[in-house]
Design brief:
- With about 70 residues, this protein is mainly alpha-helical.
- The protein contains three helices and no strands.
- About 45% of the residues lie in helices and about 0% in strands.
- The mean pLDDT is about 85.
C-alpha cells in the first residue's frame, strides 16, 4: 500500500510508506508499529481515527432488550 502526496519538496518521500516498508521487510512487526503509532498519537487523534474508520462507540450496534 502506497500513500502519495503532492505537498512538500520530495513527493516521492513519504514517511507512511517507509513505516509500511519496515513492516513488509520484517524490520519491525505490525503489532510493534501499531504500538509505536498509538503511543505517539494523542488520545484525541486515536479517538478521531477510530471514528473516521467507523470503529468508535457511536458505530456499535444498539441492541434492544427483548422482553
Amino acid at each position: 500500500m502506497k500513500f502519495t502526496s503532492q505537498w512538500g519538496p520530495r513527493p516521492t518521500s513519504n514517511s507512511r510508506d517507509k513505516a509500511l516498508e519496515l513492516v513488509d521487510e520484517g524490520m519491525v512487526s505490525a503489532e510493534d508499529m501499531l504500538t509505536m503509532a498509538l503511543k505517539y498519537m494523542s488520545t484525541d487523534d486515536v479517538s478521531d481515527m477510530l471514528d473516521c474508520n467507523e470503529l468508535s462507540e457511536r458505530f456499535e450496534p444498539e441492541f434492544e432488550d427483548a422482553d
